[in-house]
Amino acid sequence: MRRLMTVFLLAAAATPAAAASFDCGKARAADERAICANRALNDQDVRVDQLYGITRHLVPMGGRDAIIGEQRAWLKRRHACGANQACLTKSYDRRLVELNRVMERVYQQGPF
Question: What start and end residues bound the annotated signal peptide (predicted)?
């Protein structure tokens, strides 16, 4: 478990700051433009993207489709926020809680 956490922390530290999970130069949707314009939202986007990528790879094959489906559903909910920063922040906060719960289940199933 400690090794897995170390890998996660190293991966998080290696990611450049202020790099949204999508190309801000191509952002057209209101939610994406708001994320690119706000450093805190941008940082949350990076954290969600990193944690989602890690969980998607660590979850056993039978659970990956569910993780992917949950992420797609969350992206639709995030998109519905438009440029509302409070809504976007709440959406990211909730998604981070969800992904952290998945990681806790992965840790409990071990071995690492």
Answer: 1-19
Q: Report yes or no on 24 lying in a domain.
A: no
Print pLDDT tens along the chain (112 aa). 555 555 555 555 444 444 688 999 999 999 999 999 999 999 999 999 999 999 999 988 888 999 999 999 999 999 999 999 999 999 999 999 999 999 998 888 876 5
SS3 6: helix
pTM (two decimals): 0.79
Domain that residue 36 falls in: 2-16+29-109
- Overall domain count for the chain: 1
- Which stretch of DSSP H or E encloses residue 39? helix 39-58
